UniProtKB/TrEMBL annotation:
InterPro entries: Stress/Virulence-Domain
Organism: Gracilibacillus xinjiangensis
Lineage: Bacteria, Bacillati, Bacillota, Bacilli, Bacillales
Protein's name according to its UniProt entry: General stress protein
Entries under PANTHER family matching the protein: CONIDIATION-SPECIFIC PROTEIN 10 (EUROFUNG), PTHR36569
Annotated Low complexity bias: 164-173
Length: 173
């Protein structure tokens, strides 16, 4: 063990490591650490396969999950969300949302979306009772009513009336 300069006592391994780390940090810049980090990452990547990293990732995830409760994850998720929200404007989120939507739309067909919509609807229906849906319907109606004036409702009423008459005529033919 290294000797402590102040009183000739031996330093702990942790103390010696901390002091050595501080010295190296003072002698090298960020580029140096990025370069050696990249080299180390490449060496480790060549040494192990994908399954190895999946296994240790899973173990790490399980350990973390066992260590913390859901409130902890909600809290750090909230903080992360706020940090990201502060960093970017709404235009950024619209742009990435648009890209994500287009990518997803290109990847899956209409039947896929119908299937997941059906599953989501069934899951939601199983989870909540009729009172819940009445309550959110009431809130939605009040919000919409507060947002639009009477002219808006008259306009959509006229459009709806024309469509209904047109559909009734077609169905009777």
């Amino acid at each position: 063990m290294a000797k402590n300069k102040n009183n000739n006592q031996k330093m702990s391994r942790e103390e010696a490591g901390r002091k050595g780390g501080e010295t190296v940090s003072k002698n090298h810049d960020q580029d140096f650490f990025q370069e050696i980090g990249q080299k180390g990452g490449e060496a480790v990547s060549e040494k192990y396969d994908k399954e190895h990293f999946q296994e240790i990732g899973q173990k790490g995830g399980e350990t973390t999950s066992d260590k913390y409760d859901s409130e902890h994850f909600q809290e750090i998720g909230q903080k992360g969300g706020e940090t990201v929200s502060d960093k970017y404007d709404s235009e950024h989120f619209q742009e990435i949302g648009q890209k994500g939507g287009e990518t997803t739309s290109d990847k899956y067909d209409k039947e896929h979306f119908q299937e997941i919509g059906q599953k989501g609807g069934e899951t939601t229906s199983d989870k909540y009772d009729q009172e819940h849906f009445q309550e959110i319907g009431q809130k939605g109606g009040e919000t919409t009513s507060d947002k639009y004036d009477q002219d808006h409702y008259e306009e959509i009423g006229k459009k709806g009336g024309r469509n209904s008459r047109g559909n009734n005529n077609n169905s009777n033919s």
